[in-house]
Amino acid sequence: MVSAGIKPGVPVILRELEPSSEMFKQGASLRVTGILQSYDMDSATAVIKDGSVSLKIDTQNLRDVSFRTNSAYQFIGELQIHADNEAILQARIGRNVDGLDLNLYQSALLIQREQEAKLRSSRRT
Amino acid sequence: MGPPLHLVHIKILAADLLSLTVLQTSPPSFLRRGRTVTRAELVGIVVSRDRREKFLRFLIDDGTGCVPCVLWLNHQYLNANVSSELSASDPNAEMALKMSEEVCLGTLLRVRGKMVMYRGAIQISVRDVVLEKDPNVEVLHWLQCVRLAKECYDLPPPSAPGAT
């Protein structure tokens, strides 16, 4: 079912997901990318890593995604933050992105954000 | 001033598409920095899908916004007065059906089509859908959108200060 209420998953780099970051908010819709470190079938929990930073992903709502460690994955979903500031992404979309140039992806993301910020400020003036 | 934009599918990010100026003409007109645009090309992930008998509605999320898209599958009704044999082999109907099968949750798609208004919001009436298997294609699309905005789409009109 198509819902107009679905928010875009804002692409973030895992190292940006610190408690002080404006993206680190309860319920924030995010798109995260990383290499699959582990997958627990019982809890349907995946752990992805980018550099030295990792993030837990709850995949229980996903269908037709097969998980292979050391492959690259991208998830879209909502961030759940627990009392101890431990975050887990409640994924609603997941896909394998093997072949994605992560460095290029992150550089392009920064360029795109800069351009969007300029556009937003030009609309305000 | 750059070339006219209303004849081409402009490569655009969802946030820019959804913030176009809409003129309530009949049919509605869409303006980007004062220039008329009619068709768009988006690259993003399918995050929602609703298949009905006559159409497929889906949402494309490119990270900057979610764009509603509609792919019409009603060719058999439009061809009602053509002989049933001809109607059954309508290549447009076949193509639309084939394209609808590419639209699955989580897939990366390139979508091109016409901008229309539906219930007060901009949506894309889909002309074609391409399944993108290389994830780097989305990165290239982002960079193309940024470059084209700077070098073509958002150039000031000739009368504006700073125009060359």
TrEMBL record, chain A:
It holds the Pfam family Ten1_2. One of its GO terms (cellular component) is CST complex. InterPro entries: NA-bd_OB-fold (IPR012340), Ten1_animal_plant (IPR029146). Gene3D superfamilies: Nucleic acid-binding proteins (2.40.50.140). GO terms for biological process: negative regulation of telomere maintenance via telomerase. It comes from the Eukaryota. One of its GO terms (molecular function) is single-stranded DNA binding. PANTHER family: CST COMPLEX SUBUNIT TEN1. This is CST complex subunit TEN1. It comes from Digitaria exilis.
UniProtKB/TrEMBL annotation, chain B:
Pfam families: tRNA_anti-codon. GO terms for molecular function: DNA binding. Residues 1-25 form the signal peptide. InterPro entries: NA-bd_OB-fold, NA-bd_OB_tRNA, RFA2-like. It comes from the Eukaryota. Residues 42-129 form the OB domain. It is found in: Chromosome, Telomere; Nucleus. Keywords: Chromosome, DNA-binding, Nucleus, Signal, Telomere. This is CST complex subunit STN1.
